[in-house]
Every structure is written in C-alpha cells, then in structure tokens.
Write the structure tokens for this entry.
Amino acid sequence: MSSSDSSIYTTLKSYWGYDSFRFDQEEIISGVIAGHDTLAVLPTGAGKSLCYQLPGLMFDGLTLVVSPLIALMKDQIAGLRDKGIKANGVYSGQTKRTQDIILDNAIYGQEKFLFVSPERTQSHLFRTRFQKMNVSLVAVDEAHCISEWGHDFRPEYRLLSEIREIHKVPFLALTATATPKVIKDIIANLKLDPVKKYISSPTRPNLSYNVVYTENKSTQVSDLTHETLRNCIIYANTRKACESVTRMLIAQSKKATFYHGGMEKKDRESAVKNWNKDPANIMVATKAFGMGIDKPDVRMVLHYDLPLSLEAYVQEAGRAGRDGQHSDVIVLYNRTDINKQSKKVEENYPEYDYIKDIYAKLAVSFEVAAGRTDIEFYSFNLPQFAQKYNLKKIKLFNALKILHQEELIFLSDAILHPSLLKLDEQATKSLLKNPSLSPSMKDFLLLILRMYENLFLDKIVIDEKQIAQHFSKPIGKVKDGLKWLDRNGIGNYKPAFDGHTIAFGEFRYRSEELPMNLDAYQARKSKFMADLESIHDYMATDTCRQRVISAYFGFETEDCKICDNCIHKYESEPHELRKGVFDLLNKRELTISQLFGKFKVGNRKTLELILAEMEQEREINIRNSIIRLS
Ligand code: ADP
Ligand code: MG
C-alpha cells in the first residue's frame, strides 16, 4: 500500500467511519488525487459524494462542487459540517451581501468545499472571485444534465467548461445514469482530456422490475399499497393525478403526501419532511420529486403513468432499495396510455407548417407587418388566442416555445393576473332594490359586498374560490354570477388568466420564409421519439427486464431472475400457483386484485394464464371481477 493509499483509508475511517470503499470509489479517488480528469457513472446510492469529498478533504485548496439543486447542496453542506469540515454554498435566495461574504471566505481559505449552481458560475461576481480562490478540484454532480441526450438537460451546464480556463485543476464528473451517447457528450463538453472513465453497470440486483397491464389503475394502486408496505413512491405525470391518487389513499385511511412543481416551496419542503420521517407514508409525486432523495429503505416505486424514457425510468425506479434489500418497481399501464404518448409527439413537436401558421396568426393578430424591425411587447392571453383560432393549447404553447427557442419571438413566462372586480354603486343599489332580482343573486351580491370593501371605489383583487366557499356553491356558479353582473352593466369583472407577453424577434419575417434551424429541431424530436420507443420496448419485452435496461446502457448481464418476465420463465410453477389459487378461493371468494395481492407482483402474468385456464375448465367463475370456485 503506498502512502497515499494508506492515507485515504485513514481519512475514510476517521471522517466517515467506514472501513472499506464500495464500487470503484477507491480507484476514482486515487485517480482524482493523482490529478486525472475523471468521469464516474455509479448507481444511485453508490456513494458518489465520497468520490469528491474525500479527495477534496485531502487537497490543500478548495473544491468547487457544481450541483443542480439547492436542496442537494444543502444536504451535502450539512453532511460535511457534521463531520467538522468547512463547507458553504452560494445559491439564489441569499442576499448579495451573504454571497459576497461566502465567496470572500472561500478566497481566504475559510472553506474547504464551495457548492454552486451551474448558472451561478456564469455571473461576473462569481467569476472574479473564483479567479482568486486557491482551487484544487472541480466536481460536477449530476453531470448528465450537460447533455441534451440525457433526461434532465440543463442548458447552463453546457457553459461549465469555461471555468476550466480559469483554473487548470482536475475535473470530476459524476452521474448515476448515462447512455453511451450522454457519456460522450459529458466528456466533450467538459473537455475532460485525457479522461479516466469508471462506468458501472446500471444493474440493480435487488430491484424486481414489473410491468402490470390494468384497466383499473386505482384498484391496482389500492391493492399494491397494502398495510404492510413501508416507504413507497408513486410517480404520476400530472399534478391532478398526484392529488387525486393521494386523496384516494387517504380515503382508505392510508398516509399519503403529494409533491409537484405547482406547489409552494414551503409546502414541498414539508411534504418531503413528512415523508422522510414517517416510514408508512406514501409519496405521490411528479418527476419534480427525485434528485437528492436519500431514503435508503423505499420498498416500492410505482409508476401510475408511463415514464417518458427508459433513462428517466431507471433513475426514478432506482430510488427504491438503496439499502440493497429486495424492492418492487412497477409500471402500470392501460390500453390508452400508448396512444396518449404518441399524441405527445405531435403536441410537443408540432410540424413546421403548424409553427409557421402560428407565427403568421400572431402577426395578424398584433398587426405587425412583415419587415418590421422594432421590438414591441404585446400582452398575450394563450387560452383566448387558442380559442379564437380553434387551436389545442398544449400544441400552441409548444409551437410558441419553439419560436422562442429560435429567437423568432420572445415569450415571457406566464404571470398570473388575478381576477379583478369593480361594481358600479348606482347600478348595484338599484339592482338590489329591483323586485325581480332572484333571491340567490341578491344573497350573492350582498355576500361579495360584505367580503370585499371598496368594491365601488376601484378594481380590486377577488378570489372566486373563497367566495364559493362562503357561498357554499361551486366555483363555476360564482364565476357565472360575476359574468352576469359584468354583462348586465352592474360591474366590471376580469377573470384571472395566465398572461404572457410576446414580442417579435429582431425582424418580422414572412411566415413562408421563417428561418428555423430545422436540423436541431428534428434532432430533438427524434430524441423524444426514441425515448418513447425505449420505454415501449421495455414494456413490451418478454425477456429479462434488467437485461433490457443494461443493454440500453451498453452492458450485458445475466437474467436477473426476479423481474416479472424472469419469474414467469424460471419460477412460477404453474402447478403450485394453481394450487395456491385454489386454496385461497376455497376459503372465500376474492376480487382479482385481492387474489393478485397474495402473490409476488412478478407472478401476475402466469396467474392470468392460470385464471383463464381455470375459467375455461369451469373450475372458477369470474363475474364483476369477483372470482369464486364453481
Ligand atoms: P450517490 O450520490 O451515489 O447517490 P451518496 O453519495 O449520497 O450516493 O451516498 C449514499 C450513501 O452511501 C450515503 O449515506 C453514504 O454515506 C454511503 N456511503 C458512501 N460510501 C460508502 C462506503 N464506502 N461505505 C459505506 N457507506 C458508504
Ligand atoms: Mg449524489
């Protein structure tokens, strides 16, 4: 053992309390200490943080860590500080003064680790300070974000190599999932040269991969989240689905929390906290929930909707079983799912003609003549525009996004304009005295007058939901009432909308001559389609699912023996299963999902065949999903 070898063990033991390294940790760490640019692809939970933290600790200078999420940074900073190691981070939400102090401390050697977001490294303030720091290592965490071919592309990551010019120090790029294409992209982009690569297989021998076809997802979710199940995550694609699945679980007296990007930050944080401390809590989330989750004993990751790519799926499913214990990962799907996904291609990547047409319609609607070069901003109401031209909102929005990416228009982020109401004092008072006014309208008027003072003075912000609660009527009724007042000249009601502003780019083109980088667009579209295909192939396969995943990442493995297809092939003794079914039904009738719940998820395929057989042989009969012995 060389002296550096022995000292990395000493450091590992004294700071982390571990006796040995895992996976390729030791080689990676020694290489980084020897000054090599390194790319490490290690599965989630393998211990990537240690790969930069240990060398960083041993180097004299500072280690800069680029990380995509504040929550991730905070966790790492807290972890290091717990070990008595100086660490800090600059991120949005801090005052400029705080950032100043932290950056200064880093210059004067007060910090051992400095965490930043990729966009932070672009700022002038950061660049000038960074120059003065004594830097030994730059670590790029979640490095797959660099690549457009990855599942979580962050354009800011592409500019990271610029900071290479400032300090000639080793770069270490870390990620859990990367296809061969993404790996190439990371290396090229960060200019890792020469690079030492450590790429481990994405195989997770303790995960049982399953795909379950069902026309009733809710029932499946109820059955799969039985009482004995600990710690699970359910992924759904929409906020609405997250909320409704959560409501359903709560109605079944289960503990469930939801999490999605539309929630306030503090609500998201408390959802995570809740889930973290309670082993029986089910997290129902969109893909916004993920990076940085460190719960070791998640026993099931259930996909309520189809994932958008195999890569994203592996990442999400990989949050199960980080402790190495057996865990089930399951994708639910029904007949319409695949169709819905194909529609997504059209919605997300509209054809060139459609985009040109939208551009032309915008020009007409804002009366911007071809050839004009001045930039003027127009307020833009997407739902109204969609309605006027009879367009699908999602498709329209995506066309606008593409025009924006091509800098042919500028589309501001949506700002929610709240609902506004003003009432005319005269008209209101005479309406209230009008004997033909319906009693409920009268109550309604009196209620809003009580709820909002100053309605006669000026337009004020109102909340239809709140009114509806006080009025004990559905929100639609409230809106109808307000519209009625507006129509009849009693007041002025402007319902809320997600407003954008739009400007034409430098030059207003004739729509037939719209200069678009079609190659890039086409490439993105192909990538999107290839991603969908990867998940479809995964769903459709009847070979080992673990092998399909490994092959996708460029590895070859043996059959896992625990996925549904392997269980079907190796394990399910149809015989014994059939006897099991018979014994259960002999005690009492069961619904199909109750019956399935008594067996391993991976047995479903065989069970379905057995049930069909038993039904045909008139051993059982199935009516309204209830099975009983004949
Ligand atoms: P990753 O970033 O690869 O998903 P982390 O760096 O967050 O994983 O590490 C996951 C867990 O594994 C952490 O709790 C960490 O302390 C632990 N760990 C890392 N290296 C070792 C090791 N050599 N021995 C035991 N535990 C380790
Ligand atoms: Mg990590």
Remarks:
- The first strand starts at residue 37 and ends at 41.
- The pocket of magnesium ion (ligand 2) is lined by residues 48-49, 141 (CB under 6 Å).
- The two ends are 72 Å apart (CA to CA).
